[in-house]
Give the backbone structure.
Amino acid sequence: MSAEATESVAAAPGVIDESHLIRSVLRLAWPVVIQQVSFSMVQLVDTALVGHLGEDALAGVRLAGQIFWFSQAGMVAVGVGATAIIARSVGAGHPEDASRTLRNAILMAFLWGALMGVLTWFLGNWGLGMLGAEEGAKHQGTVYLKATSIGMPLWSIIYAGNAALQGAGDTRTPMVNGVAVNLVNVVVAYLLINGPGVFPRLEVLGSGAGFTSAAIIGSLLVLAVLASGTKVVHWKPWEAGRLDRRDARRVLNVGVPAGVEQIQFNIAFMIYTRIIASLGTTALAAHGVTLALQSLTFNVGFALSVATTALVGQCLGAQRPDLAEKATYVTMRYSLVFMGALALTMMVLGGQITGLFVGGENAAEVTGIGRKLLFIFAFAMPGLAVSLSLGGGLRGAGDTRAVLAIMAGATWIVRLLPAYLFAIVFGMGVPGAWLAAVLDINVRAALMYLRFRQGRWKHITV
């Protein structure tokens, strides 16, 4: 290792400590777990709070969540690109370059969020119809989408700001922001859904208002922290409208494949959801609740994936591909342990967990289906651990095109066709569709492992 690279590692506070490898990985990862749980809880809380309003409200809000995921494609593109570029700059000891990337990322994220907010407001009803929502669910979902569309530009800012901080090695600030966002959503949504005391009872509209209120607070918090000058990356409000085209192209060169990955997955997932919707509102409600619960299980693996992305970028910036590889395998092993434990929990307590979030006249039937789905998905958890960890490493290196190819191939070929065959042709219902998802995730993990072992990611220039 050169003297210059050694100085870079020492100068960058977020870079991995080789002598305490496991501690460095966990130091970055544990705040992301709390952050992701908090963000996942935003929609999970919405699901729980509207669950007692009936199947139409529950199915409408969950389908609206699918459309919101589609709008996240641009956020992912900017976020992944910013994390990788900023991590390299920090690893190389160039914080001024990292701050320039931050400024461009915030501006691009805001513009994307504004565009998606407008499209969601005007086309949300059509999108819900395309997903197969019945009339009552479509009405409720449209109400929710119009309320949340106002907050989309601000949610994009939160996403970009947190991604920049994570690339710089600061995962604790995004964690605090995530907790604050969730608390605001819980309080506002509860008050406006149910209307206790002087508050109006807005039902599903109140849930959307809670989401937008949380986005307002979260965006103000992350911008205040970035503008304070106390972090490795610094956002200057008076330069907020300046776009450096060269740096923006660098971010998009790495990030666009990740955004396309998100788009293709969401389109495929809409088709997947359409297959399930054809089985009826009860099946769709069970799928929606279980999906919200299952999203929580991603959090440990995703946290380690985020840590891997940052560490791989920083180590490559410091000219240490050997250390990047070592850190990635550490995160993969820890992810397997933690997600294996979650898989066992899902197998044993799936019914009880699902029952906490279900109400209405068909609660027993929805809970029964949910228990089966969580049991089935437990068999995907080891593969998910491998896929998330190694995918995070590849993204941190800028090898996002390979990740896109793997994700797209597995999703369209391995998930969708078997989902239709198992659920509809063979009459297995929603459990059949979820079996196809398990197959998809395990194939994806095998392909990620093979790509990472090839080592081509060590020589990518971003």
Q: What stands out?
A: Residues 355 and 367 are 5 Å apart (CA to CA). The radius of gyration is 21 Å. Confidence is low (pLDDT under 50) at residues 1-14. DSSP finds 15 helices and no strands in the chain.
